[in-house]
Amino acid sequence: MKKSLIALAVLATTGAAFAQSNVTLYGRIDASVGSNRLNGVSTTQLFSGNLTSTRWGLRGTEDLGGGLKAIFGLEQGFDASTGTQAAGSAFDRQSIVGLSGGFGTVKLGRHDTSFDDIRDLSLSSNLWDSEFSPTKIAYTAGVADYSSRSSNQIRYESPSLGGLTFGIGHGLDEDATVKADLTSYNLRYRAGALDVGIGFQDQKANNREYTTIAGAYNFGVARLSAGFNRAEVNGGAEADGYTIGVNVPMNAFDFSVGYAYSKAKNAGATTAKGSAFAAGVTYAMSKRTKLYGGYLDGEVENGAGVTTTDRRLYSIGVRHDF
Q: What's the pTM value of the predicted model, to 2 decimals?
């Protein structure tokens, strides 16, 4: 009898603890069949994550009172075609803990950079910021593209001040012998159908700096996004890129086309050019399941006009959210 009473007391206590917390299991599984041709070599593949990266995760909050909340997030990418972990780390996509309140949000751990939020905005209607997005090819001309995530990061996100927000993140290198930290900033304004922002990122590990300006507008009958991106190697090459995309919803369908262009220079001389076009469509079978098809075609040339990268990608597939 005493054991039963103790068990009931434990269950009651546990139930009270869970009532104050909120933990969610979520994820996306994305698989498609198609072809990837790179520099003249074609392979037929079962792809994972062409529309959005396949992943699963846990996120949660605990109400600490007075408007203050504890938060956490864990997210792991994996390959839907094989079931294998996508990267070496267990939670390579996200691993954070932090606090949120009227002052904003502080996150500690591995997370997207503040710069990445604005780069994502520039592709929000440009093939849905997917593997089909034309920047995947065009922005590789001359200077390698940015790091979208940073480990050992301290990140702050402000509350909205009349639609205006700002963010800052700093990833510690934790090595006294090298200078390899990463710092990023963003400033963003959202009002109704309008969403615009600017971002900056300094990557000490490879002496690169990135600046991006992006905007998106929802016209109702169509959604438009566009962006400018500058990549610079300290004391060396720089590349300017431009991209634009549009989405047109029609009942359960969502059609998208996009284009990107980039030119790199060093000491005033053109060293590389990149361009790409993409088109795709999704069909919502339900709120959580989509069928899709996409096509990407682009190339990169060196300063002499010789093609160094030529890629064509197409596939049809299904994505399910849970």
A: 0.91
